[in-house]
Amino acid sequence: MALPEVKQTATEARLATLTMPDAGCTRAAREDALARVLEMGLPGRRDEYWKYTRPDSLVVPDATPAAVFADDESLVFSEFDRLKIVFVDGVFNADESDDLSMEGVSIDRLEDICCKDIHWAKDLYGVLEARGQTPVQRPLAALNTAFASDGVAIHVTGKPSKPINLIYRHASATSDAILHHVIRVESDAEATILETGPAASRFNKCMEIDIADNGTLHHVRAQGRDHERRAATHMFTRLGQESTYKSFTLTVNGVLTRNEQVIELTGDDAVAHVAGACVGDGDFHHDDTVFVTHDAVNCESRQVFKKVLRNGATGVFQGKILVKEGAQKTDGYQISQSLLLDDDSQFLAKPELEIYADDVACSHGSTSGAIDETALFYLRSRGVPVKDATNMLTLAFLAEAVDEIEDEALAEAIVTRLEGWLSRHS
Amino acid sequence: MAALDQTQVKEGVDQETVDAVREVGTYKYGWDTDIEMEYAPKGVNPDIVRLISEKNEEPEWMTEWRLAAFERWTQKEEPKWAMVHYPPIDFQDQYYYARPKSMEEKPKSLDEVDPKLLATYEKLGIPLKEQMILAGVEGAEDAPAEGRKVAVDAVFDSVSVGTTFQAELKKAGVIFCSISEAIKEHPELVKKYLGSVVPVSDNYYATLNSAVFSDGSFVYIPPGVRCPMELSTYFRINAENTGQFERTLIIADKGSYVSYLEGCTAPQRDTAQLHAAVVEIIVEEDAEVKYSTVQNWFPGDENGKGGIYNFVTKRADCRGDRSKVMWTQVETGSAVTWKYPSCILRGDESQGEFYSIAITNNYQQADTGTKMVHLGKNTKSRIVSKGISAGKAQNTYRGLVSMHPKAKDSRNYTQCDSLLIGDKCGAHTVPYIEVRNNSSRVEHEATTSKVDDDQLFYCRQRGMDEEEAVALVVNGFCKDVLQALPMEFAMEAQQLVAISLEGSVG
């Protein structure tokens, strides 16, 4: 079917600014992805999947400039012993990065695998993204697959001793970065991936994660701080039997952030948890879009998203649990809640269930409201100043999402981060 | 219902529920009435629109209104977003107007109505006699005399056959007649309100309805009047290849009250038939309207052949402060249901409620829910939806709760539960929640375990275990909804009361 004219024009204009890297073994995947982009067109305002978030600034040919702030953001996990992989404005920086060799994992730069004809990543690059295009289209991810200029391929074969930290530094006001990472976790292997930093004025990031039977991947991400950046990120995860995937994202400000998580439970007894805490003040739009597909027996999925909004900030949650025929004994849970600290902010949610199996327990809940006056009164009656009491309650509200992080030290770092935001913004 | 008999039912699902769903699935109204009919030519075009208008002896302004709607319809596209799949409908391969020959001259009283028609309604359990007790309603004899009277407007294919108790209602100042009659007798009211809640070009099916609606009911309750009896419309599709397009307009003026019932059935036929209705309700200050539906159109046979495609637009506009509207629906029929009774809560402190039980079986598909649009301050809404899916059916709840910036201190509570019987069916939930101010509270829940803590505590205190207590409260609640249905629906509802939602999924 031909695309609507507006969409066709917008897509062509964007594509005109991009050139496909000379890409060795990912060439075929990139060309297929480009064909998908041309077929779907880039997202437009009238698309149902973009009902609550305007995709315009993510689609226009040139990124809107964003001021570069003093960067303390990529330092969130600086206290931790970790392996640093640094990207400046979306370009790998060898000087700032650590030596990429570590036991239990092999890390290659996308550029290096591009010149090889045979590489394990070839069977993953663009594959999960392509699978993730049905039943809902995600054209920005296909665009990413086709034109990603950098990224890493992480092959987890054992249990590396420290987390891998992908650090995205922002240096130029007009940077427009497209990064694509592929991660494969082998059987019985386990790793933790951390992501920090604003990345670029406009950031399109895609991560494809394939977890083999009994594999485990932890993912903790801290996005943005007082930053004007715009970002669209996609994480495509496929889980094998008895494997585990746990992901947490902290989003602090940013003009526009759209985080999509596309999770497919394909092996029996797999577990996937995704959580997000987001705090927004003023000109802030944050969108969590999650799509979990249960395609195996006895799997568990959990979505916990909490948003605190003030001064006209907007929070969006679109979450879906799809239980395919035969995916019996599924345990699916989804909660999205917002705390609106003033009257100008808004919360827009679409928590969906689509169930084709009868022996399942799926539930979802969504609430929105102001801070609990009774609790506030209680704290005040105990002598806590109103500002502190509000912060205390706000933090308690977000705690349910932060608690999803298994590693206590990492959770602590996130809480410190949140406290910092609250003290600056109250 | 063979499919259901062999179904392995998951542990925890009540056998009583399975039996009740099976019972509901046997269609009892599949017979047809052999009566000589008069049809307009097949298809829809401006000439047909004019013809329908002419048959109803409508004034010029009405004809123009219809033609404008038709013009808009030709520019619109069929909506595709609902989770229902059906072969393309050939809108030109339908009759848009069919009436019994004997209705050519409008009967002046019920005594003049063709006995065949009267017999049809008699058989459906809706005797068109001004009698005190409706046949077949158990326990009706014990009910207080006041509660027993029901005025009926009977619509047969494209025309209203008759309206009972008109004289008695007139005494109370209530106008209850067919809409074609209202257009002639009360043009000022129709002109003022028609299309004011569901605009002509609201959606594809509403626009088509605006162009070709043939009949329907009209209700006006004057200020301060509590309607002395329940009002009811019974829709019957009889003719083959005929679409039914009825239009209902209910106006509850300041401080008035009315309870309105709607029932519908159709004969069993191999080809699908179209039904696209529009219901508009205007609720003024302090007024209250209760609208209850038992939708029992022919659902198609067990192989998914035939059945009614039910595309309905129902909306209530709570214009005045403290106005209240309550939608209750029991959806058991139709091959395809596309229906979202909505409330616009414009007046301050206005209230909207939506209670729904949708049961689908075999190849039935239902995509139904509600919209609660909170515009006024202190507005409240409550949504309780129970979907039950069996056989190869698909059941979707789709709803919107919207709190506008000015709707301060408003509340919404939504609960939607689904139950699957068998592993070949589907149950889906698609809620949209839009909160644009912080003094409003919105809660959306889709679990059976979250029931009122006080009630739970009470039960547990009496020695029940948690599970038992939850089941009791949830069951009690479900029954509450059903028992809130007017007595005339009691027969059908009684079977449904047996339905428990234990083992349901969110």
What does this structure look like?
The complex is a heterodimer of chains A (426) and B (506). Chain A has helices at residues 5-16, 27-40, 56-59, 110-114, 127-131, 139-147, 373-381, 386-402, 408-425, and strands at residues 83-88, 91-92, 105-109, 152-156, 164-169, 176-185, 190-196, 202-211, 216-223, 230-239, 244-252, 256-265, 271-281, 285-294, 300-310, 314-323, 331-340, 346-355, 361-369. Chain A is an alpha/beta fold and 426 residues long. Chain A has one domain. With 506 residues, chain B is of the alpha/beta class. Chain B contains 13 helices and 24 strands. In chain B, helix 4 packs antiparallel against helix 10 (204-212) and helix 11 (453-461) packs across helix 12 (466-483). Chain B is globular.
Features:
heterodimer; A: 426 residues; alpha/beta; 10-stranded mixed sheet; 37% strand; globular; B: alpha/beta; 13 helices
C-alpha geometry of chain B: globular
Helical percentage of chain B: 10-25%
Radius of gyration of chain B: 22 Å
Largest interface, with counts of residues having CB < 8 Å to the other chain, equals: A-B, 36 and 37 residues
Helix/sheet category of chain A: alpha/beta
Number of helical segments with 4 or more residues of chain A: 9
Summed up, what is this model?
The complex is a heterodimer of chains A (426) and B (506). Chain A has helices spanning 5-16, 27-40, 56-59, 110-114, 127-131, 139-147, 373-381, 386-402, 408-425; strands spanning 83-88, 91-92, 105-109, 152-156, 164-169, 176-185, 190-196, 202-211, 216-223, 230-239, 244-252, 256-265, 271-281, 285-294, 300-310, 314-323, 331-340, 346-355, 361-369. Chain A is an alpha/beta fold and 426 residues long.
Any chance you could write out the topology, listing elements then pairs?
The complex is a heterodimer of chains A (426) and B (506).
Chain A: H1 5-16, H2 27-40, H3 56-59, E1 83-88, E2 91-92, E3 105-109, H4 110-114, H5 127-131, H6 139-147, E4 152-156, E5 164-169, E6 176-185, E7 190-196, E8 202-211, E9 216-223, E10 230-239, E11 244-252, E12 256-265, E13 271-281, E14 285-294, E15 300-310, E16 314-323, E17 331-340, E18 346-355, E19 361-369, H7 373-381, H8 386-402, H9 408-425
Parallel strand pairs in A: 1-5, 4-6, 5-7, 6-8, 7-9, 8-10, 9-11, 10-12, 11-13, 12-14, 13-15, 14-16, 15-17, 16-18, 17-19
Antiparallel strand pairs in A: 1-2, 3-4
Chain B: H1 2-5, H2 15-25, E1 37-39, H3 46-55, H4 60-75, E2 98-100, H5 115-123, H6 145-148, E3 150-156, E4 159-163, H7 166-171, E5 175-178, H8 179-185, H9 187-193, H10 204-212, E6 217-221, E7 230-236, E8 247-252, E9 257-265, E10 272-275, E11 278-283, E12 288-295, E13 307-318, E14 324-331, E15 336-339, E16 342-345, E17 351-360, E18 365-368, E19 371-374, E20 380-390, E21 394-403, E22 411-421, E23 426-435, E24 441-445, H11 453-461, H12 466-483, H13 490-497
Parallel strand pairs in B: 3-7, 6-8, 7-9, 8-11, 9-12, 10-13, 11-13, 12-14, 13-15, 13-16, 14-17, 15-18, 16-19, 17-20, 18-21, 19-21, 20-22, 21-23, 22-24
Antiparallel strand pairs in B: 1-2, 3-4, 5-6
Helix pairs in contact in B: 2-13, 3-4, 4-10, 8-9, 11-12, 12-13
